Amino acid sequence: MSAPLDVLIVGGGPAGLSAALMLGRARRRVLLFDAGQQRNRRSRRIGGFLTRDGCSPRDLLRISRQQLRAYPTLELRDGVEIVSAKPCASGFQLRSKTGEVFLGRKLLVATGVTDSPPPIPNVERFYGRGVLHCPYCDGYEQRDKSIAVYGGSTDALALALELTGWTSRLCLVSDGLCELRPAQRRRLSASGITLREEPITGLKGRGSQLERILFARGEDLPVDALFFHAKGQARLDLARELGLDADRRKPLKTAGYGKTRVPGLYVAGDASNHVQFAIVAAGEGAAAAFAINTELLKEDIAGSPRRSRAVLAQEACQPETRLLRRA
Which of 48, 131, 160, 205 is the most buried (most CB within 10 A)? Predict the structure, then answer.
C-alpha cells in the first residue's frame, strides 16, 4: 500500500481498457486489474466493432494493451483478482486475493457479466463457437444456415423471431414441454419456425463445430448453430460492498457517464444497463474516463490556490467546463 493513485480500474475488457486509454492521455495515474474473465474470451470473433470487425477477442486485447504501453502513467496487473473494496479517506481501498492493498481516489468497475450456457450435456464443448447468444455479434456468420433456438419461454420466442432477419431455417427446441400460449405457437408457425419439444440429450459435432442436436425421442436435428437467450449475472460484488444496491440478475442503471450514487464509484461495460456490445462497452469506458477526469480536475482546482496552464487549457474546453460548474 502506497500513496493513492488517481484511478483504480477493475476489469480488463473493452470498457476497462478504453477508460485506461483515455485516462492515460489525461496523464492520470491509473492501475488496471485484469483477472482474465472477459465475457467473450471463448468466441471466435468480435462482430460489429468498427476497425476490428471479425478479429478475435484475444487480438483485440493484444492490440489494446500494446497501445496502452505508450502511456507511462498506466499500469496493468494481470491475473490479479480483487476480492474486496471499501471506502477510505483517500477514496477507495481494494484488496486482492493474495492480500495486496491498493488505494485510489476514484474507482471504475468494468467487470461485466457472467453467462450461463443452456443445461445441455457437453454444451461447454461448443460454447462460444456453435452455441451462441448474440445475433448482432454472430448472426451474420450464420446467415441462411440452419439455426436452433433453445428454450420454451417468451424470451426464446422473441430471440427466434429476431433471428428471422438472418435466416429462414429456424427451429425452436424447448427441451421439454413448451410454455408458449396457443397464440404464440401460431405466431411461431406463421413465421416459418418449427418447434420440437422433446428433451435434449446432447450435442454432436466435429471439434467445436456443432452439427446436430440429439433428442430423447425422434430424429436428430442437423444445425449449424444453437442460440440461447442469455441471462447473464452482473459481476457487481465490489459495487455492492461499497453500498450500491445492485441486483446481479440484471444490469445496473447508472447515471450519465457511468456515475453511481456512491461518490467516486463508476460502472461501465456489460454490467451497466445499456446494449451489450463490445464497441458500446468501449464507448462507455471512454465516457466514464471523461467524467472521472473531470471530477478529479474539479477536486484538484478546489484544493489548489493557483491554476496551472494545463488546468486553464482544460477549462477552455466547453464540455469539461459545463461539468466543472455543476454542484
Answer: 160
CB 231 within 8 A of CB 251: no
What gap in Å lies between CA 224 and CA 210, rounded to an integer?
6
Q: What is the pLDDT of residues 277-316, one digit of tens each?
A: 999 999 999 999 999 999 999 999 988 655 454 544 454 4
Please indicate, yes or no, if residue 309 is contained in any of the structural domains: no
Q: How far separated are the first and last CA of the chain, in Å rounded? A: 32
In a domain, 275, yes or no: yes
The total number of structural domains that make up the chain: 2
Does one domain contain both 107 and 253?
Answer: yes
**274, 7 in Cβ contact below 8 A?**
no
What digits encode the pLDDT tens for the residues 57-91? Answer: 899 999 999 999 999 999 999 999 999 999 999 99
Res 53 pLDDT > 60: yes
Query: How do 200-206 and 91-96 pair as beta strands?
Result: unpaired
For residues 194 and 221, the answer to whether their CB atoms sit within 8 Å is no
- Distance between CA 45 and CA 128 in Å, rounded? 9
Burial of residue 2, with CB atoms counted within 10 A of its CB: 0-12 exposed, 13-18 middle, 19 or more buried: exposed
Map residue 212 onto helix, strand or coil. strand
> What kind and span of H or E run contains 233?
strand 233-234
